[in-house]
Amino acid sequence: MRQVVPGMPRVRSFPDRAAMGAAAAADVAAELRARLAGQDSVRMIFAAAPSQSDMLDRLVAAPGIDWARVTAFHMDEYIGLPPDAPARFANWLDRAVFTRVPFERVHRIDPDAEPATYAKLLAEAPVDLVCLGIGQNGHLAFNDPPVADLDDPFAVKVVELDDTCRQQQVDDGQFPSFADVPTHAVTLTIPRLLDARRLFCVVPGAAKRHAVDRALHAPVSAADPATALRTHPDVTLYLDAEADPRV
């Protein structure tokens, strides 16, 4: 297991989602500009969730980013949905960001392919940035407490989704009912996410308050996957007032 770094992550709190999203987008944009000024290209991973919408809307409008030198990945995908299903994460990200700026390339997860295929693409060069959130059950990507492994030997794997995670997808408006939510998905593992150089974690809403509290204060373990953020040296957590357990 990674060594716990005391005092991590940095926490920034804002009165509402709009202010939170604007601040997070400004920081991600600044990081992109800085890295593109010093290296030929940038590789980054995106989460697909309504919690990320405010940040992504501001990010795609940010000036001065040479998106043609940025390669994009995403961190999870349902198994069993039709290719054109709106709830499929690749399609959600197409609408939110992938088709809104001219990336050098976008690598979408194919849920019918071997997970090792996507792992190989990720391993071709270091990942610079991850834009992620925290689930109501404390998951990172689709690493739910029942299946999360903070020392996972795999970079990408197939997992079974727990009931809390599936219900969150209904609560977020992505599916009409619990029965419609797929039971399995492909996900990047926690070690693969934490291998990135910098993480920007955007977490709005009262439904996430308990998970944020656990992420910041519970013992670092797979019982609360988001506690793993405290083992990374460069994480910033963005909260609105509803999600901030300190408010």
From TrEMBL:
<dbReference type="InterPro" id="IPR037171">
    <property type="entry name" value="NagB/RpiA_transferase-like"/>
</dbReference>
<dbReference type="Pfam" id="PF01182">
    <property type="entry name" value="Glucosamine_iso"/>
</dbReference>
<dbReference type="InterPro" id="IPR004547">
    <property type="entry name" value="Glucosamine6P_isomerase"/>
</dbReference>
<feature type="domain" description="Glucosamine/galactosamine-6-phosphate isomerase">
    <location>
        <begin position="15"/>
        <end position="232"/>
    </location>
</feature>
<keyword id="KW-0119">Carbohydrate metabolism</keyword>
<protein>
    <submittedName>
        <fullName>Glucosamine-6-phosphate deaminase</fullName>
    </submittedName>
</protein>
<dbReference type="InterPro" id="IPR006148">
    <property type="entry name" value="Glc/Gal-6P_isomerase"/>
</dbReference>
